[in-house]
Design a protein that fits this description.
- The protein is α+β, with helices and mostly antiparallel strands.
- The chain has a single domain, classed as Heat Shock Protein 90.
- 32% of the residues lie in helices and 28% in strands.
- It has a 5-stranded antiparallel sheet, covered by helices on one side.
- Helix 1 packs antiparallel against helix 2 (34-56) and helix 2 packs antiparallel against helix 4.
- It is globular.
- It starts with a strand and ends in an 11-residue tail after the last strand.
- The mean pLDDT is 89.
Length: 148
């Protein structure tokens, strides 16, 4: 089974809740556990918040795009912004690192995404934007298909 959805919205903090609820609704037919649902919602929240706060940094008119793909029981999520990008991805992914200490940012966005999802990849280029790619297996079936 394969199912896809794409949505685009203004890069404003008020849309973070919209993003998390939309992705949660999209995966609901997979009957995720409360923990799986919470993990996905938290990871989406963190990715969208990073796009709004760090990617666009107050620049008006920015958009965030979320692409979701379900293949069998694996959820693939991309959160995309065309903002300022990340100069040093490795440094940005370190726990407690933040470029916005004045906003009381904890520096735990990427570590939370990494902890709550099964796979995380960040692709970014300064002045071109960032793509956060995440995967999460939903349910208790095996990752490996039985060979017949």
């Amino acid at each position: 089974m394969r199912n896809e959805m794409t949505m685009e919205f203004d890069a404003i903090s008020e849309n973070e809740a919209f993003a998390r609820i939309s992705v949660a609704a999209f995966i609901s037919f997979l009957n995720p556990t409360l923990e799986e649902m919470s993990d996905v919602k938290t990871a989406v929240s963190e990715a969208v918040t990073n796009a709004v706060i760090h990617g666009y940094d107050g620049i008006e008119g920015g958009k965030v795009v979320i692409n979701c793909l379900i293949e069998k029981d694996v959820l693939h999520i991309e959160v995309i912004d065309k903002g300022k990008g990340i100069e040093n991805i490795e440094r940005a992914m370190e726990p407690l690192f933040t470029t916005k200490p004045e906003l009381n940012r904890s520096g735990m966005g990427f570590p939370f995404m990494e902890a709550f999802m099964d796979d995380l990849e960040v692709i970014s280029e300064p002045d071109k934007g960032t793509i956060v790619q995440m995967k999460k297996k939903i349910g208790c079936t095996s990752w490996i298909e039985d060979e017949e």
